[in-house]
TrEMBL record:
This is Regulator of chromosome condensation. Residues 1-35 are annotated as: Disordered. Residues 1-10 have a biased composition (Basic residues). PROSITE patterns: RCC1_1 (PS00625), RCC1_2 (PS00626), RCC1_3 (PS50012). The lineage of its organism: Eukaryota, Metazoa, Cnidaria, Anthozoa, Hexacorallia. GO terms for cellular component: cytoplasm.
């Protein structure tokens, strides 16, 4: 089942954290991000805590709708957290909306004024040029052009809230990770953990460790009450491997992490109870482990482009535009047809083979893909209306998503992200 809905009643906000964002830029080499196209944001699905950004009167959308509060902004990235949404502008500014019970928006909001239901700027980070954002269930991360990671919100484990850092929840941006002479170049978030990749190819992780998703803590020490405690899981630490591997890309699932080595091999760690890591078995992994099936599938001439993973399933995109799926099949999330069974190794999503894909995303039990033509396809769990089909039925094979605000001849999808109950799109008008 997809993640259970959290209580939507608003708790009294804690006093904002006093951590001040250091506004003085250092002279380290900046993190670089490829030039990106700008577009406008569409959302769909369920929005009872404001995650759609469509105002208090719109609690669900069966088809994509434009987030009006961002009309005058040039958006280059949009990411869904569990019950909140984050957008990044071309000028490096961050906007958020949705559930703010645990500080995930990074700004003070008033539930009486409906401020969580509309997009608003994260003002305490406005002096920083942000080049990338990521979001989890109750946290948000931002990467600056100087290679510094900022964050706000909290992580959670099976016992509840654990804080963003050892001293608790952060309601405003605070510096999480900065390294001298080795800037962070990419960040990714799972439900309750974060992964960062440095320019030199090293990986740092922090957050909840219970399912092995940090890749650096033995199974017997992964709980917050273990010998190492909160400091060890919440402080960013490097993932070390006996082979001294270096990496060129990272991806997060809900409770898993994937990394691509400098030589193109795929490694994984974390929850594997449905075979979502692709290792051929159901063993949870607590350290980087080479995924032979994916590595052999992707040759030197056909590289791994992207990996997206939900609660219990994973989809993989290669450089030829083909998509592969593995893990739990229930609700159609693998896109392999109604009779598909759980698979512990990658299987080609044949329904997309004729249409090269350039981007992929997963929600808890949904999958989405953007074609090279800019069309959107979706499949999986339909009850939360995340698929954009206009119905609440599950889809067992990819279906093309269209609507008034998403017409193939008029609109091109640039990016897609899915949360616990909603989906966000970055779309531009075709010339």
């Amino acid at each position: 089942m997809p993640a259970r809905k959290r209580q939507t009643s608003k708790r009294k906000a804690e006093e904002p954290a006093k951590d001040a964002v250091n506004k003085k830029k250092d002279k380290r080499e900046a993190a670089s991000v490829d030039q990106r196209e700008v577009g406008h944001v569409l959302t769909l699905g369920q929005g009872d805590v404001g995650q759609l950004g469509l105002g208090e009167d719109t609690l669900e959308r069966k088809k994509p709708a434009i987030v009006k509060g961002l009309d005058d902004l040039e958006i280059v990235q949009v990411e869904c957290g569990g019950m909140h949404t984050v957008a990044l502008t071309d000028s490096g500014k961050v906007y958020t909306w949705g559930c703010n019970d645990e500080g995930a928006l990074g700004r003070v909001t008033s539930s009486e004024n409906g401020e969580e239901f509309t997009a608003g700027p994260v003002q305490d980070i406005e002096s920083v040029n942000v080049v990338m954002v990521s979001a989890g269930d109750s946290h948000t991360m931002a990467l600056s052009d100087q290679g510094t990671v900022y964050g706000w919100g909290t992580y959670r484990d099976a016992s509840g809230q654990v804080g963003l850092q050892a001293d608790g929840v952060k309601h405003k941006p605070t510096v999480i990770l900065t390294l001298q002479n080795n800037p962070i170049i990419k960040i990714a978030s799972g439900n309750d953990h974060t992964v960062a990749l440095t320019k030199d190819g090293n990986i740092f992780t922090w957050g909840c460790a219970e399912q092995g998703q940090l890749g650096r803590i033995m199974g017997c020490f992964t709980s917050r009450g273990g010998r190492r405690g909160l400091q060890y899981i919440l402080n960013p630490k490097q993932v070390r491997d006996k082979k001294r591997l270096t990496f060129k890309d990272i991806f997060c699932g809900s409770y898993s992490t994937f990394a691509v080595s400098q030589y193109g091999a795929v490694y994984a760690w974390g929850l594997n109870n449905y075979g979502q890591l692709g290792t051929g078995d159901l063993e949870t992994l607590y350290a980087p482990t080479k995924v032979e099936a994916l590595t052999s599938l992707i040759s030197d001439n056909n590289k791994c482009v992207s990996i997206a993973s939900g609660q219990h399933h994973t989809i993989v995109l290669d450089s030829s535009g083909k998509v592969y799926a593995m893990g739990r099949a229930e609700y159609g999330r693998l896109g392999l047809g109604e009779d598909a069974k759980e698979t512990t190794s990658p299987v080609l999503v044949a329904a997309l083979e004729w249409n090269p894909i350039c981007k992929i995303a997963c929600g808890e039990a949904v999958s989405l893909a953007v074609s090279s033509k800019g069309d959107l396809y979706s499949w999986g769990f339909g009850s939360c209306l995340q698929l954009g089909t206009g119905e609440d039925e599950d889809e067992f094979s990819p279906v093309k998503v269209e609507g008034k605000n998403l017409q193939s001849e008029l609109h091109e999808v640039l990016g897609v992200s899915a949360g616990g109950q909603h989906t966000a799109l970055l779309v531009k008008d075709r010339k």
